[in-house]
Amino acid sequence: MFVVPGEDRREAIATFPGVAHMSTDVAVAEAVRGASRGIGGVLLFGLPDLKDAIGSSAWDDGGPVQAATRAIRAAVPGLVIATDVCLCQYTDHGHCGVLHDDGTVANDETLPLLARVAVSHARAGADIVAPSDMMDGRVHAIRAALDEAGHAESAAILSYSTKFASAFYGPFRDAAHSAPQRGDRKTYQMDPANAREALRESLLDEAEGADMLMVKPAGPYLDVLARVVESTDLPVAAYQVSGEHAALRFAAANGALDLRSATLESLLAIRRAGASAIMTYAAIDAAEWLDD
Ligand code: PBG
Q1: Residue 242 CA: which ligand 1 atom is closest?
Q2: What's the CA gap between 3 and 24, in Å, rounded?
Q3: In what order do the strands lie in the sheet with 213-216?
Q4: Which of 65, 85, 144, 288 lies 20 to 30 A from 205 at CA?
Q5: Is 51 labeled as catalytic in the residue annotation?
Q6: CATH code for the domain defined by 2-291
């Protein structure tokens, strides 16, 4: 869910059918609806009012993710709440970390900032913090900060451990207003051609203290997902990303596919490859269809 400041806001996103910007009150209603259909949890992304060079509104305890976390926790106590930990929605340059003077992303300088974001989310009541920035060493930095802040047992880390530099994130970047102003994310996200590096990245995050791993996107990378699942005892999630979702929705809207059977088949394939959990924008629909 993409949470925005304000009240009574539900705004469609042209490139992202079925997904909307929602203010906290609307997000709460959506969470209640999802829970009643049997979804496992929600994953929250925030769009702040203010962006700056270091993404400082990301650790504002009054920010949209923090506010939605508290409100959903109160309205649906049993629902798992996961929060996206990254800077790209909050930086004015759109990168997932802070920048050196020459415009390149500063990995190590970003780590303490991500840790602040994670602690702020945990303080708001998140069950799971999910770092998606792909900086090296962030899982270790976040784990240490959570432990120190008293969240050793209350907050788990779901690491986007193998996240590819993919063309399938287009609708998300429209929704999150997070496209990089210059350059791309290839210096920190994984090379789609390199399966062995992808595996190594996930295992590094396990060693740093991740509680769950994740492969993203899901559909184009089922081989990688299956290999990660075989290489770890941790739960492995898979993320059916915005472009995968939009492709299904636009194809169905034009009569090329049956939405229900194509979506369920795509989710079945992700499960068959070994995913313990699936992040998908079709979650509420799928839960309803599976219940039928
Ligand atoms: C932010 C982030 C992205 C996604 C999740 N977290 C976009 C990106 O890396 O540019 C993509 C999710 C989707 O496409 O559904 N780092």
Answers
A1: 15
A2: 6
A3: 162-163, 213-216, 236-240, 277-280
A4: 65
A5: no
A6: 3.20.20.70
